[in-house]
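Limitations

Structures in this collection are predictions, not experimental determinations, and the ligand pose is part of the prediction. Treat each record accordingly. The example that follows, with pyridoxal-5'-phosphate as the small molecule, is included so readers can see exactly what is and is not provided: the inputs are given verbatim, and the output is the predicted complex.
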Amino acid sequence: MTKNYPYRLLTPGPVPLHPEVRKILAEPMLHHRTPEFKRVLKNVSEKLKDVFETKQPVFMHTSTGTGAMESAIVNTLSPGDDVLVVVSGKFGERWADMVKQFGLNVHPLLVEWGNAVDPQEIEKQLALHPTIKAVFSQYCETSTATVHPIRDIASIVRKRSETLLIVDAITAVGAMELKMDEWGLDVVIGGSQKAFMLPTGLSFIALSEKAWGFNQKSRLPKYYWDLRTEKKSLEKGETHFSSAVATIRALEISLQFLTGEQKTQTLARIKKLAKATREMSKPLGLQIYSKFPSASVTALLTPGEIDSQKLREHIEKEYNLTLMGGQDQLKGKILRIGHLGYITDDDMAATTEILYLALKDLGVPLAANAREEALAALRAELK
Ligand SMILES: Cc1ncc(COP(=O)(O)O)c(C=O)c1O
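Predicted complex:
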């Protein structure tokens, strides 16, 4: 059956690549110490500041997003530091696991999955444990498709000169409003396979002035992730290690859509895709899982009798569409649909149609007009 369906990828990363990005990825390799690559690096370094809305340099590591998470830790903190970690899903758990590995003293702030953290809770914890050196949170917790009120959290943390706010914005930067300097975010990280519309393998990190102050005192060992050496190299127009030339050249293309005038349109488009997904899912009997749904990814609860993992596999096998399922306590319960990358209206209509067909295939009783209603709801949002 799949032969009738072109391959589609609607996950929260990796995401479909823009055709211009695909074109440049097919170009012959260029050396990283050439004038042409220096030009590219200078240009992307400037434009990344616009994406992060910061005056500070934004660095690139040749790593997945988790590399930038590690970089955030080792570049700012010291063994034995007290840290507060918002744990509201798989990626919050990752922060907690990582900081433990580095010998930090973790105070986990557990939040029910699907819920956002209450900034007042953070304020309370900071008052209770005044030695806390950093608050770690996701902006979007991808595993539950939930957005945290990062701006409000920042307004609390920024009052404390001795505490940093370290934000995993991997599924947020370039996808939703983020003003690093204005809001007072101290460390912000991103990943190439998300809103940047690139293959996996590049991560981004920026430090505020306050975080650079912490960097001077940080005693955790660092070599590959050492941002002091990266800073010196970037000032000379280079990356310290070999540059991920192909991906950075592709980044120059995708940044056109994430900066300047285009930025507003791209953010609006992502928001629209999320809203359209929420609306089209109603006639199909699929409920929104998160209490604070993100713009970059939507989690849909499958009907009680349907294992979402089976539905996901059926959709991939029969309809050539890759969506994501749930992890851990959400395994078998949710389907996650990504809204990042090069997604056309046609992809959205196909996804709607496929969801309808797949639910029917698995025996879910749906109203006779559910397909038409879902498509109409989708069209009404996308127009
Ligand atoms: C919020 C969040 N943090 C961290 C990561 C980890 O990134 P990576 O798999 O690129 O290491 C992801 C990836 O999906 C993510 O969504």
